[in-house]
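Sorry to interrupt, but I need a hand with the structure work. Could you write out one complete protein record for me, on any chain you like? Could you add the entry underneath, on a fresh line?
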Amino acid sequence: MTLKAPEQKSGHLVIPGERLGVIEEFIPDSGTYVKDGVIYSKIVGHSLLDLQNRRVSVYPSITSAVVPKVGTVVIGQIGNAQSDNVLVKIFRVGKKQVSGTFGGILHVSDVSDRYVESMGDVCKPGDIIRAKVISEKNQIFHLSTNDKNLGVLYGFCSRDGTLLIQDHYDLKCSKCGNVERRKMAPDYGKESLYRGKISES
């Protein structure tokens, strides 16, 4: 059986989640993912069907397109937080801005090689963190800060949102004097971020 859908033609502009084919017919390659036997595009780009080798891939439509991958170090902002995990909005991979919006999840078990009781001791919503991608199961980027170079780069006071200043092993709010604890990166407060991600609101 051969599919005659337009997805079978090379050169089409595709968007994330767009169907490209099925695993019975093609081997998924770069820029794709598989769900329930169907191959979809992971990025915005142009589809490429290698009929000889039965491979399907998607090439970024812009050469600077950046997508998180397993093993890459990413920078993101903490969103929703629970006691055992937090959501992270990834906006940078290495030194490059990502193309699109990618979500990650940091679980309490991947924070440190020491026991951590609650994510509240590690980071809080609004914080900017550096983490490593350890898995992309089910199209969710699972992150880890279990490395001496990873952790919170900028923390914000949970009372008034002021940027926290490092004070030895703690972080202190210059406005209200509140002292908070984080899993800090060694270069806390020194990472240069693009697009004005840091704002004392």
Notes: Residues 74 and 140 are 14 Å apart (CA to CA).
